[in-house]
Write a structure and sequence with these properties.
Strand order of the largest sheet: 1-2-5-8-13-16-19-22-23
Order of helices and strands: EEEEEEEEEEEEEEEEEEEEEEEH
Number of helices: 1
Mean pLDDT: 83
Structural class: mainly beta
Helix content: under 10%
Radius of gyration: 17 Å
Low-confidence stretches: none
Distance between the termini: 40 Å
Shape: globular
Largest sheet: 9 strands, mixed
Strand content: 35-45%
Oligomer: single chain
């Protein structure tokens, strides 16, 4: 009989991140996780698409391709990849920055330049290259955010192409907290509060 404990579905890091064994993280040296982030199975994070242009001034280049904040939740089948463009005569990738308490729904594809904190992205959403999403934004299921779009704080966005259809109601900020959702996932999950 084996003395090793059974392998769980998730790998838990020292900083509390829960990464599914069936998630695909490519170029892990270029992916930064802030802590207490959940990455579900079938998630793809493309850290290999890092900036290739050398930094000027002789300083070492910062090659972080994807930076994810605390208490983020990446649902099954979503894909995060940094946006790319022509820069100084060559094609290069720019970093993708994600704030704290960001929920990314199943099968969503994210290529934004930055996503603020307390953002909820629905199921099957496509976020185009270099889009900027500010804090406290809700993007409804099936939306397609065009490249380079800037979504202001406290907005509700929907459509193909996406547009602002409403604003987050006053006092509706608690719905963006993901601490309780974090506790329901992992090798020793706790039941969701009633």
């Amino acid at each position: 009989m084996s003395r090793r404990p059974p392998r769980g579905e998730y790998i838990e890091t020292d900083t509390g991140n829960k990464v599914a064994r069936k998630a695909t993280l490519v170029g892990t040296q270029n992916i930064m996780l802030g802590g207490k982030t959940v990455i579900q199975p079938e998630v793809m994070i493309r850290g290999d698409l890092a900036r290739s242009a050398p930094a000027s001034g002789g300083a070492p280049a910062n090659n972080t391709a994807v930076a994810i904040g605390r208490y983020c939740f990446l649902s099954r089948g979503c894909c995060l990849r940094p946006p790319g463009r022509m820069y100084k005569g060559g094609f290069t990738y720019m970093p993708l920055r994600i704030g704290d308490h960001v929920f990314v729904g199943p099968t969503s594809v994210i290529q934004a330049a930055s996503i603020g904190s307390h953002v909820h992205i629905g199921t099957g959403v496509v976020i185009g290259e270099f889009a900027i999403i500010k804090d406290y934004v809700r993007i409804l299921d099936g939306s397609v955010v065009p490249p380079n779009m800037v979504i202001p704080s406290f907005s509700v966005v929907a459509g193909k192409p996406a547009r602002v259809i409403d604003e987050v109601p006053e006092g509706g900020h608690e719905k963006f907290e993901l601490r309780e959702l974090y506790k329901t996932v992992g090798n020793n999950p706790q039941p969701a509060p009633a």
